[in-house]
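Structure (tokenized):
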């Protein structure tokens, strides 16, 4: 009797047991009932197309073109009845309904694959697969998988699958009209052709390794931009973190102001500043030149300056202009993660090091720098990765004279229509970026 009383008390204290079915099953039942309503809407639209004249969705047009007769009626009706029954039964935690929902999800995934194979309607097929997979994960009662499923599905669809497609295309060859032709893998020669475009990237054109030179230029520009951003951004972020708390949010707000303007517009602003008729050269060839001419008789320096300021400075359409644009564009991306890391530091550790006799140099190298290393690595990765693949900045400020990997990639896809070689370049860039990210996780994990 005592055990019965304790069990009754536990049930009264457990809100989940009092609230009906398990949360994951409840969510699955709601999704199934919502699906049933959606199937009902589609069935109603299909039945009344002739009388009401609905504007068809893309998948409805594909169904009409590829599946004549009663197939759409069966599909919509089957979905309506099955989802309505399973959703209602899951609310009662029916074990048969749970297993039925698993079978239903597997069937719909197979139907979506067949639908995509017949109609090439990827959007509708992947939507059905995603929702069916979500129901499948929910009815397995695995809360962790259910919570992480949306993010995992998003990464698979928009990161893993595109990279697989790019890799597969990179193994092909360019056809006569820019088409993609895959080699015959039944022969040794065809198998050897799979990685021709990767070998082409590392091969000579004439007497020079042109593609490797473009890669080297891109790599060192990105590396130099990252180093300069870290060198100038670290003390600035440190200064921000040491300010009174009431001023920190204001400083962060000021750092984020450039993000309110489109990156393309900000790059064009540099074009107006650096061109021959821009602000800097107007001051150089007008104000400074006039003053130098007026004082040219007083000293040799002003005579030289008067001659030097006759022509505008070559500030645009060169590597220096691209470097300035990259630094300006990505400098805030260094300040924000460094500030976020430094703000959380325990500053009493620096005071303790000073009390123990450590100099400012040792306090920085032995205490502050190791503690802020994760922020440094994160900031470096955030700047290095987009700088390596930059396209807008070298196109506008380089004027076609500074070719980087981003420009090379655009030329292969849009100009020469050599998709296999462009895919190979893109896959190599992605491999380098993934390597940099792995280094970040490795260093960040060890530091933490």
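Design, position by position:
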């Amino acid at each position: 009797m005592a055990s019965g009383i304790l069990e009754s008390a536990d049930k009264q204290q457990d809100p989940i047991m009092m609230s009906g079915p398990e949360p994951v099953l409840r969510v699955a039942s709601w999704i199934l009932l919502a699906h049933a309503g959606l199937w009902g809407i589609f069935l109603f639209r299909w039945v009344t197309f002739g009388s009401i004249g609905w504007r068809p969705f893309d998948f409805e047009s594909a169904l009409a073109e590829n599946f004549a007769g009663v197939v759409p009626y069966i599909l919509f009706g089957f979905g309506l009845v099955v989802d309505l029954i399973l959703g209602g039964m899951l609310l009662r935690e029916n074990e048969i309904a749970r297993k039925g929902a698993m079978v239903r999800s597997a069937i719909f995934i197979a139907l979506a694959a067949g639908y995509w194979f017949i109609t090439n309607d990827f959007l509708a097929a992947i939507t059905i697969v995603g929702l069916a997979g979500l129901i499948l994960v929910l009815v397995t009662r695995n809360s962790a998988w259910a919570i992480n499923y949306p993010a995992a599905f998003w990464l698979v669809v928009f990161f893993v699958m595109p990279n697989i497609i790019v890799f597969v295309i990179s193994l092909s060859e360019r056809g006569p009209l820019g088409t993609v032709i895959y080699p015959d893998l039944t022969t040794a020669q065809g198998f050897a052709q799979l990685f021709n475009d990767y070998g082409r990237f590392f091969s000579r054109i004439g007497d020079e390794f042109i593609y490797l030179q473009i890669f080297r230029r891109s790599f060192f520009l990105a590396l130099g931009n990252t180093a300069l951003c870290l060198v100038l951004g670290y003390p600035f972020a440190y200064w921000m973190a040491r300010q009174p708390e009431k001023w920190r949010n204001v400083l962060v707000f000021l750092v984020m102001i450039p993000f309110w303007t489109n990156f393309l517009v900000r790059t064009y602003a540099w074009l107006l500043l650096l061109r021959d008729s821009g602000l800097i050269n107007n001051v150089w060839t007008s104000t400074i030149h006039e003053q130098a001419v007026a004082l040219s008789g007083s000293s040799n320096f002003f005579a030289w300056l008067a001659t030097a300021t006759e022509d505008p400075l070559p500030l645009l359409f060169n590597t220096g202009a691209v470097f300035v644009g990259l630094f300006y564009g990505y400098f805030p991306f260094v300040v924000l993660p460094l500030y976020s890391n430094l703000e959380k530091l325990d500053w009493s550790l620096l005071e303790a090091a000073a009390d123990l006799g450590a100099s400012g140099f040792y306090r920085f190298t032995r205490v502050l720098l190791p503690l802020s290393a994760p922020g440094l690595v994160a900031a470096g990765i955030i700047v290095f990765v987009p700088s390596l693949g930059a396209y807008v900045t070298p196109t506008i400020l380089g004027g076609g004279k500074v070719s980087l990997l981003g420009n090379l990639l655009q030329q292969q896809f849009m100009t020469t229509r050599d998709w296999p070689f462009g895919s190979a370049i893109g896959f190599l860039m992605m491999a380098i970026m993934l390597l940099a990210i792995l280094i970040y996780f490795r260093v960040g994990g060890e530091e933490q």
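Reviewer-requested clarification: Residues 210-241 form the longest helix (32 residues). The beta strands are 173-174, 180-181.
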